[in-house]
């Protein structure tokens, strides 16, 4: 009996040795708080031979961090790294309305090599300025954080790409990063075929002073979920204050129905650097009220964006997915179980 006990002990020690040497890792991933899902670890992406130094040749990307959208954020980050020639040069600047250690731990465990920083966005900065819109998700303070991006990130960051969390990139982000902004503050795809007037109320267009806002400009719709921003010019031009001023008008007169988009249009529409539409195949989440399925627009695609009510992870989980949602699925790192056998 003593011999069998000894053999059992040796077997246990051997199993532990195998477990800690990564030949086979039998690990239990503990379930985090219910609002923070569990993700599997992403591969380590390395620079190509033509890349400069990861310490100096940075590509700065900003996104928001929120428990409700963390699954989308993880997919977006993976897609950026996977398609980047120089993934080690990409620096992520995450904006969060509160510091949540669980989310930070999730990022570190999912992307152990990720170069990122997290900044606090104080919700009280906009609470008195937000007007109710047609969709509750658009009214969240964090949705307005992009307005204050230049005030939050370090002063030595002079250019940044702002991205929403409901998108995936299928091209090298360096191509977007290198766009020539010329003398403009923002670069983004423009959509001049849309009815621009619908983004503002009759109150706006019937007021002779407000209606003259776009005089001297040819305003076109652009989506603020994909923007290259000249941060230095934004700071120098006081654009945060300019956008805020329109939010004050909105509180007084109700001149638009959507969240943070219209004040951007009021300040910048007709005065941005237009980039190819391939960089924002937007609207894949359908409209803001029902989120019905939509198909892809014709032409080349570098970025897929599920703007609108329908989010791919929710539609896939509910087994009511749209065809385009299956283009997002390969980037989904979500684990649906709390116990996993890892190889």
UniProtKB/TrEMBL annotation:
Pathway(s) served: Glycan metabolism; pectin biosynthesis
EC number(s) recorded for this UniProt protein: 2.4.1.-
Pfam family, one: Glyco_transf_8
Record keywords, A-Z: Glycoprotein, Glycosyltransferase, Membrane, Signal, Signal-anchor, Transferase, Transmembrane, Transmembrane helix
Enzyme class label: transferase
Leader peptide range in chain numbering: 1-23
UniProt topology in membrane: Single-pass type II membrane protein
GO molecular function, one term: glycosyltransferase activity
Taxonomic superkingdom: Eukaryota
Subcellular localization, as worded in the UniProt entry: Endomembrane system
GO CC annotation: Golgi apparatus
Family under the similarity heading: Belongs to the glycosyltransferase 8 family.
Descriptive protein name: Hexosyltransferase
């Amino acid at each position: 009996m003593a011999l069998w006990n000894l053999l059992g002990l040796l077997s246990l020690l051997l199993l532990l040795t195998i477990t800690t040497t990564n030949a086979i890792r039998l690990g239990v991933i503990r379930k985090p708080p219910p609002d923070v899902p569990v993700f599997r670890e992403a591969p380590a992406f390395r620079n190509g031979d033509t890349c400069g130094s990861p310490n100096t040749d940075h590509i700065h990307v900003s996104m928001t961090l929120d428990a409700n959208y963390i699954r989308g954020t993880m997919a977006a980050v993976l897609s950026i790294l996977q398609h980047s020639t120089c993934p080690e040069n990409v620096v992520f600047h995450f904006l969060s309305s509160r510091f949540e250690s669980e989310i930070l731990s999730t990022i570190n465990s999912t992307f152990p090599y990720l170069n990122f920083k997290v900044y606090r966005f104080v919700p009280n900065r906009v609470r008195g300025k937000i007007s109710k819109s047609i969709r509750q998700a658009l009214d969240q303070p964090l949705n307005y954080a992009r307005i204050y991006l230049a005030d939050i990130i370090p002063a030595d960051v002079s250019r940044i790409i702002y991205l929403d969390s409901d998108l995936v990139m299928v091209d090298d982000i360096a191509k977007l990063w290198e766009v020539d902004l010329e003398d403009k503050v923002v670069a983004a795809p423009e959509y001049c075929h849309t009815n621009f007037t619908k983004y503002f109320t009759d109150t706006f267009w019937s007021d002779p002073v407000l209606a003259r806002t776009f005089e001297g400009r040819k305003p076109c719709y652009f989506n603020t979920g994909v923007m290259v921003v000249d941060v230095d010019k934004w700071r120098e031009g006081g654009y945060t204050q300019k956008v805020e001023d329109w939010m004050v008008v909105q509180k007084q007169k109700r001149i638009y129905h959507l969240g943070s988009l219209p004040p951007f249009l009021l300040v910048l529409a007709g005065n941005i650097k237009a980039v190819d539409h391939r960089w924002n195949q937007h609207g894949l989440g359908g409209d803001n009220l029902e989120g019905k399925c939509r198909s892809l627009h014709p032409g080349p695609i570098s970025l897929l964006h599920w703007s609108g009510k329908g989010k791919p992870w929710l539609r896939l989980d509910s087994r009511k997915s749209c065809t385009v949602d299956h283009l997002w699925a390969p980037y989904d790192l979500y684990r649906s179980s709390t116990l996993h056998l890892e190889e």
